[in-house]
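Progress note, sequence design subtask.
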């Protein structure tokens, strides 16, 4: 199982696991964006699910962009330098604290589309 070394979101999209939303996170129809992604490397060829085509972001929704305290989102990407100190805060003792995940929790699809 790997969590680094591959950029998951485009791979997940191509594997049919969901769509990328304006908050730059993957939304799965059933589980929303509250999914932790991992990968297992295999030397077998597997059949992916069809690429997801459901709508994830209503045209007029910008809740995630508006809620970001550091203005890191523009609807297409995230400015890592602005987000990282909040999303991935390192303590003096070497622990990582997630001080912010507002763009994730504010989303009406956080727990699934239509949930
Ligand atoms: C570095 C990293 C960060 C950085 C930078 C984020 C970023 N988007 O680059 C920081 C520290 C800011 C960060 C923050 C957070 N992250 Co983060 N992060 C990662 C990590 C380790 C690598 C991503 C990376 O390399 N980005 C660098 C470049 C490539 O990103 P980019 O140029 O913006 O490209 C992205 C998009 O443009 C798009 N993209 C690019 N090319 C293409 C092509 C196609 C065809 C498509 C469809 C898409 C696409 O996907 C790219 C990858 O994100 C991944 C895990 C992984 N191994 O992938 C988790 C990951 C993306 N993070 C995750 C999460 C949950 C968060 C936070 C919510 C953490 C929190 N506080 O709880 C915040 C959210 C901030 C946000 N709105 O994005 C989850 C997302 C789960 C999901 N449902 O989507 C992941 C997948 C971790 C996991 N194991 O589940 N993260
Ligand atoms: S995790 Fe917080 S700081 Fe980072 S993009 Fe989301 S709302 Fe902005
Ligand atoms: S808050 Fe609105 S714009 Fe942002 S990801 Fe969720 S549905 Fe899309």
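Output:
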């Amino acid at each position: 199982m790997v969590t680094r070394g591959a950029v998951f979101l485009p791979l997940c999209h191509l594997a049919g696991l969901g769509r990328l939303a304006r908050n730059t996170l993957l939304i799965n129809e059933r589980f929303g964006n509250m999914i932790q992604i991992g990968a297992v490397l295999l030397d077998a060829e597997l059949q992916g699910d069809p690429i997801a085509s459901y709508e994830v972001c209503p045209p007029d929704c910008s809740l995630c962009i508006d809620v970001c305290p550091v203005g890191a989102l523009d609807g297409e990407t995230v400015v890592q330098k602005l987000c990282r100190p909040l999303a991935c805060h390192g303590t003096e003792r070497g622990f990582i604290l997630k001080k912010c995940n507002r763009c994730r929790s504010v989303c009406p699809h956080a727990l699934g589309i239509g949930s």
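The longest strand covers residues 19-20. Work on this subtask will continue into the next period as scheduled.
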